[in-house]
């Protein structure tokens, strides 16, 4: 890899560290190519990505960034999983680590907050952006359906009373 390629990689990594909601760092020694492809596919499904890069270049890219202390995690064979959604990459990485013993989560960063493995697990347990939106919409929609039910209830009560009166007159 020549100097220009290294500079391009550092630039790409810097962009990843700036724009990602969460970056998870893990060891992947012993993970097969097929297993790595499976991880990449799962990450792609949630809008995230997986990147393997030289630790030294990643540390250079982290220089001056809010998550600069994450550089301490970059030792050995590391892979970075990241996504714009602050929860998606952590969820996929945590689920994958449960299935594959050779994929060991070291920690990560969420903005300027450095996460240890327990922190990544906590982030993974949080609801995703889509789940939060669904919860908010259901909270907003619940009062409206209650109001509609309350407005419709007197009319149905009146209809019930009228039908009872009709039955009495017919009898």
TrEMBL record:
InterPro entries: Ribosomal_uL10, Ribosomal_uL10-like_sf, Ribosomal_uL10_bac, Ribosomal_uL10_bac_type, Ribosomal_uL10_CS_bac
PROSITE patterns registered for this protein in UniProt: RIBOSOMAL_L10 (PS01109)
GO CC term (a single one): large ribosomal subunit
Record has Membrane as a keyword: no
Keyword DNA-binding listed: no
UniProt GO molecular function: large ribosomal subunit rRNA binding; structural constituent of ribosome
Keyword entries, A-Z: Ribonucleoprotein, Ribosomal protein, RNA-binding, rRNA-binding
CDD domains, sorted: Ribosomal_L10 (cd05797)
Highest taxon of the lineage: Bacteria
SUPFAM superfamilies (UniProt xref): Ribosomal protein L10-like
One BP annotation, GO: translation
Subunit structure: Part of the ribosomal stalk of the 50S ribosomal subunit. The N-terminus interacts with L11 and the large rRNA to form the base of the stalk. The C-terminus forms an elongated spine to which L12 dimers bind in a sequential fashion forming a multimeric L10(L12)X complex.
Family statement: Belongs to the universal ribosomal protein uL10 family.
Job description of the protein: Forms part of the ribosomal stalk, playing a central role in the interaction of the ribosome with GTP-bound translation factors.
Record protein name field: Large ribosomal subunit protein uL10
Lineage, broadest ranks: Bacteria, Pseudomonadati, Pseudomonadota, Alphaproteobacteria, Rhodobacterales
């Amino acid at each position: 890899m020549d100097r220009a390629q290294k500079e391009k990689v550092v630039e790409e990594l810097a962009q990843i560290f700036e724009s990602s909601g969460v970056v998870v760092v893990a060891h992947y020694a012993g993970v097969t190519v097929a297993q790595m492809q499976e991880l990449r596919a799962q990450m792609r499904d949630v809008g995230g990505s997986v990147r393997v890069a030289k630790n030294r270049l990643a540390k250079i890219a982290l220089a001056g960034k809010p998550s600069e202390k994450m550089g301490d995690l970059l030792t050995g064979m590391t892979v970075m999983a990241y996504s714009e959604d602050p929860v998606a990459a952590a969820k996929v990485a945590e689920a994958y680590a449960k299935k594959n013993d050779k994929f060991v989560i070291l920690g990560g960063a969420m903005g300027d907050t450095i996460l240890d493995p327990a922190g990544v697990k906590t982030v993974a347990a949080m609801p995703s952006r889509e789940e939060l939106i669904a919860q908010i919409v259901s909270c907003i929609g619940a009062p409206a359906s209650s109001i509609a039910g309350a407005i419709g209830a007197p009319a149905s009560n009146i209809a019930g009373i009228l039908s009872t009166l009709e039955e009495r007159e017919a009898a």
